[in-house]
Specification:
heterodimer, A: 473 residues, alpha+beta, five-stranded antiparallel beta sheet, B: 287 residues, mainly alpha, two-stranded antiparallel sheet, 45% helix, elongated
Chain lengths: 473, 287
């Protein structure tokens, strides 16, 4: 019984991924460079929007409740654009997962990208796999301490840059950078930097695959999007087995292509053996493909013992037939449907973006009370009108009420129906529409009304339909 | 129920020893950091309940050593808010209300502050939309019993109407004509009053015209247009505080009316008296 008394908890098994070269590794370096560059550099891109508006290309202005993205400016009530983008991101993820498996996990997930970067630093400082294993097993010495501390310091600096870059998306980057350095920034900026520095340092340096296996829900969800046509990283066991090292032995002819060199296991950042088949831990980073291809080249066997494979091809391949071409796996009802949905949302949002009016007006009739009788018997309705000026300078708008010749419009606190709305602001005004005693709208329960607003500068017009409540209402 | 732990050959994993109906549970060890995280949350939870109000006692609860309370937070927010607005409040208290610029920030602040004062103190009688009710004046229209300039409104708010606790309160009293006039005379004058709105001075040939001239014109004026000096309503316009139908008019003439408004000067802060006046003035009837 003692041999089977496994503990309920286990310590993390350290993983020492070996350096690898090849197609997918090169691709991953490029993706890492591009994604990190986007992340670190975006806040520093300048974009001239005229006076009174920030000149940062991408800015989430929480205090001002605006989101700036190059030429697009999103106001809070247009948040559906963000919701739409999230839906598109969702469908995009579904599409890629159903076509290529966990390609998000393997190539672009921040956890993968930063872990990759941290492993790169680790290798520069402590050496490749074998040196790192040796160092791990060594007793603490001055050398070990020096290497460890150097590594941690570099990791920490990367983590600090990562946490630091995040806050630049929420304020003018050059100003905030100066404030941070001179200790004048908001405590929220410092605590955000501190928290993100901590998570980056711990997740990238120490937890790595634990995040994917135990913390991230996405690996569990994506099984629903995968089917036998999904391309995933897999081992052709019908070609590789039985595996064996002893190529010169008598039974060598019976052996498969796998020489059990462990190259695929040694490079795996998740610490698994892909030859055991599909596993929950596998993020399909494809590094084992590069490692195995390298070995196959060296022993003069064809590449692709480990490869992007679709489960539906297994039967054909076992019978010695070639797999179906990749496009047949990728283009299928499911992926086409995801693409259509993704594109539909994208087009709908583009359409919504282009028909967006420069003048935004909301009109809410005051219903408490619905109408007021004035001393001379005329009937007055009140409307709360909200006018947005999305321009970088002050604008004057003129309001008119149409729909019945009796309508007379005045603005509270203003002799003329002209409204000055400051740059990039919203103004709320009480607007009165009065009709003479005995006129049609005064007597009827409800009469249609159209409120027009005109930009006195460039003549842009917009309208909102509402109603006028008479005495019968 | 067997509770023997053994090595499962198919998976190469050990069992936990839990077996139900012959189905055994495999032991897939959780990471140890997960266990430590779990313990850490317990410790965190304990510290949290000591730091913040948490444990219920018979009278109340433990206060927590950080001294945090939601009431305290609200008080702090109110304090911060008042500090932020202290400039505007000082300006409002010092301002000459009769010349307050309607497009100024101070005016906007007065309207916003006055709106909340109004909702708390005035809406019970005048309605949340300030439309009034029978006996409670509508503050949205352009008809005022005692005047609709900013100064007039402020005076009314400060001292009230027919308020015997304030010697400066606006005061007037209409006699109950039921004790003075005959029923026929009341009937005649009630029939005459609507003619005031139709033409200047009303229908001079009407049997009620004489009764009106003798009894009502001294306060309401010869043409029935009222007198703000004594809060006498305009009888020639389209607005009626209690109602303009013969039945209500008969009741008003017979028994009189005596609407009372309390003085808000002693109850509200100076800035609130001013702010609520700005608000009422801004509702569309201000003069």
């Amino acid at each position: 019984m003692s041999d089977s008394s496994e503990p309920l908890y286990a310590a993390r098994e350290p993983i020492f991924p070996k350096r690898v070269k090849g197609t997918f590794r090169t691709l991953k370096w490029w993706i890492m460079g591009v994604t990190l560059a986007i992340y670190y550099l975006t806040p520093w891109i300048r974009w001239d929007r005229g006076p009174n508006l920030p000149d940062q290309a991408v800015l989430v202005d929480m205090a001002g409740r605006r989101f700036y993205f190059f030429w697009i400016e999103i106001w809070p009530q247009e948040f559906y654009f963000v919701a739409g983008l999230l839906i598109m991101a969702g469908f995009g993820l579904f599409l890629f997962t159903s076509a290529l498996g966990r390609v998000w996990c393997g190539y672009t997930c921040p956890q993968t990208v930063w872990t990759d970067l941290f492993i790169l630093v680790e290798r520069w400082i402590e050496g490749d796999r074998n040196a790192r294993v040796r160092l791990w097993n060594e007793k603490w010495s001055a050398r070990k301490a020096r290497l460890r501390v150097t590594k941690w310091v570099v990791w920490f600096l990367i983590a600090l840059a990562t946490g630091g870059a995040w806050v630049f998306y929420f304020a003018d980057a050059p100003t905030l950078a100066r404030d941070i350095v001179t200790l004048q920034a908001d405590p929220i900026a410092y605590s955000t930097i501190l928290i993100l520095t901590g998570t980056t340092f711990i997740f990238g340096g120490f937890m790595r695959e634990q995040v994917c296996i135990y913390m991230c829900p996405w690996p569990r969800i994506q099984a629903a999007m995968m089917d036998p046509d999904t391309l995933t990283v897999a081992y052709r066991d019908w070609r590789g087995e039985p595996r064996g090292k002893h190529r010169k032995s008598a039974e060598a002819e019976n052996l498969g292509d796998c020489i059990d060199c462990m190259a695929c296991v040694n490079v795996c950042p998740m610490g698994i053996d892909i030859r055991k088949g599909q596993q929950m831990e596998c993020i399909t980073c494809a590094l084992c493909i590069d490692a195995c291809d390298d070995i196959m080249d060296k022993i003069g066997k064809p590449r692709g013992l480990i490869d992007y494979l679709a489960l539906s091809d297994e039967g054909r391949e076992r019978e010695g037939n070639p797999p179906r071409p990749i496009w047949q796996h990728v283009f299928r009802v499911r992926t086409i449907l995801y693409t259509v949905l993704w594109a539909a949302f994208g087009l709908a949002m583009l359409y919504a973006l282009f028909i967006r009016a420069d003048i935004n007006m909301t009109v809410s009739p005051v219903r408490n009370p619905t109408f007021v009788v004035m001393a001379d018997g005329s009937v007055r309705n009140t409307y709360e009108v909200r006018l947005q000026n999305k321009h970088g300078e002050d604008r004057v708008f003129r309001l008119t009420a149409r729909g019945n010749p009796a309508y007379g419009l005045t603005v509270e606190g203003d002799l003329f129906a002209n409204l000055n709305v400051p740059a990039n602001e919203t103004r709320l005004v009480r607007v009165y529409v009065t009709v003479p005693a005995g006129s049609d709208p005064a007597i009827a329960a409800r009469t249609d009304m159209r409120l027009w607003v005109e930009d006195t500068e460039n003549g842009d017009r917009a309208y909102k339909d509402t109603t006028f409540n008479g005495k019968e209402g | 129920m067997a509770d023997e732990k053994r090595l499962d050959e198919a998976t190469g994993q050990h069992t936990t020893g839990h077996s139900y109906d012959g189905i055994e549970e495999l032991n897939t060890p959780l990471p140890r950091w997960w266990l430590w995280t779990f313990y850490a949350t317990i410790v965190w939870g304990l510290i949290y309940t000591i730091a913040y109000p948490a444990w219920p006692l018979i009278n109340g609860a433990t206060a927590g050593f950080l001294g945090y309370s939601t009431r305290g937070e609200v008080a702090k927010e109110i304090e911060a808010h008042e500090a932020a607005n202290s400039d505007l409040v000082a300006q409002l208290v010092a301002a000459d209300m009769s010349t307050l610029d309607a497009s100024s920030d101070l005016h906007r602040y007065g309207v916003a502050r006055g709106a909340s004062v109004f909702r708390a103190q005035c809406s019970q009688c005048h309605g949340s939309g300030a439309a009034g009710a029978k006996g409670y004046p509508n503050l949205l229209d352009n008809n005022w019993l005692w005047g609709g300039t900013m100064e007039d409104i402020m005076y009314t708010v400060r001292h009230g109407i027919r308020n015997d606790q304030d010697d400066d309160a606006r005061y007037s009293e209409m006699p109950a004509f039921g004790e003075i006039l005959e029923a026929e005379e009341i009937e005649a004058v009630v029939a005459f009053i609507p003619t005031l709105a139709a033409s200047e001075g009303g229908d001079a040939d009407h049997p009620g015209a004489g009764v009106f001239a003798d009894n009502c014109a001294s306060c309401h004026g010869d043409a029935g247009k009222g007198d703000r000096e004594q809060g006498a309503p305009n009888l020639a316009d389209a607005i009626w505080l209690y109602g303009g139908d013969p039945e209500t008019l008969t009741e008003t003439v017979t028994y009189s009316r005596y609407g009372v408004m309390p003085a808000w000067g002693p109850r509200l802060r100076e800035e609130d008296v001013r702010a609520v006046s700005v608000y009422v003035h801004s509702l569309g009837g201000g003069e």
